[in-house]
Amino acid sequence: MLFEELAELTGQRNAIDGRLVEIVAEIDRDQLGGATGARSVPALVAWKTGWSPANAQTITTVASRLDEFPRCVQGMREGRLSLDQVGVIAARGGTGSDEHYAQLARCATVTQLRTAVKLEPRPEPNPRPEPERSITTTTNEHGSCYRIALGHHDAAKFEAALASHRDALIAEWKHDHGNDAGTSAERPPLPSTAEAFVRLVEAGWDAEAARRPHGQHTTVVVHVDVEQRAAALHLGPLLTDAERRYLTCDATCEVWFERHGEVIGAGRATRLVNRRLRRALEHRDRTCAVPGCDATRGLHAHHIRHWEDGGPTELANLVLLCPYHHRLHHRGVITIKGTAGALVITDDQGRSLRPGSLARPPTQPPPAVAPCPGPTGERADWWWYEPFQPQPPPSNN
């Protein structure tokens, strides 16, 4: 009985996932996610369903290739194939392989499908391009591990800088401990490459702090014509109201008033979020304040009541926003009102954006689909598998 119930519930879940794929595909096709303020379709799915980002990415990947794999998605709607199985196929399956994988997935596990997709013939890759600069971080209770990807030229400069700082640390070590009368066991160890890396970061940090005392900000110089109510960047173009508010939101703003091209005075220049206030703001607001956005890097300090409208530079009037939602706000797409502890964020239709899942108790019976016994999962030896052979393009002759 338990196995029968497990198969029945699995079939119903697969069918529900199939319908969710079709809904997400329709949202993506009609670009309905922009009205919610979500940064992307996966972020919207994770927000509205309560799923993890990985599951949301899987269902979005399947939805984006719905037209290429209709048989596989139909297998989900019939309860025979799971979202994980079709997700593996949609992630890397070649064009035209829908029927092949729809049959294979009936008896193959997710692990076997991953192997099958890897064996699929693919065109020869282009010459390997220079890798993009990237840093990934893995954190546990013992500390953090950083993985840095650099091109050959950048890697050479990085290694030279590390070597230079390590040599400087070793010279300092020898100066302090080289003539020490104590035994070698009492001396501290030689500086490591990791210590040289920290010294390199500190040196760059100190240089940036010396160059710009408030490292989070830039200085924006704006010229305002008091008669025409027009503003322009210094030696730059005219600004719209939204651009003026955005550029002066988290920057040192220097305003010069002019009449007939002649300077008649300077406005306020103090609206900075200083380092101490910025740290308190980051400690309170770890992510972007817009519901459904989990951005944590490159956040802007935003005045809820705009500074140019008399809003104070205080914690109660400040929130952190990612650049994407910051621009949306100043373009009028989303509205942010209230105080930091009681924000009211609405879209351009006046609808409130709230976090959490939109799941509701079901009001309809579960879909009537056949129970899903699951893949048979026999051992797939290499010679048992016949890889999918894509059809050659039609000839123009």
UniProtKB/TrEMBL annotation:
Using the record's annotation, list all stretches that form the HNH nuclease domain. Answer: 276-327
- Region listing for Disordered, in residue ranges: 351-374
Pfam families per record = DUF222, HNH
**Which InterPro entries does the annotation name?**
DUF222 (IPR003870), HNH (IPR002711), HNH_nuc (IPR003615)
**A molecular function (GO) term:** nucleic acid binding
Composition bias (Pro residues) maps to: 362-374
Q: Which family does it belong to?
A: Belongs to the Rv1128c/1148c/1588c/1702c/1945/3466 family.
> Which protein is depicted?
HNH nuclease domain-containing protein
Q: What is this organism's lineage?
A: Bacteria, Bacillati, Actinomycetota, Actinomycetes, Mycobacteriales
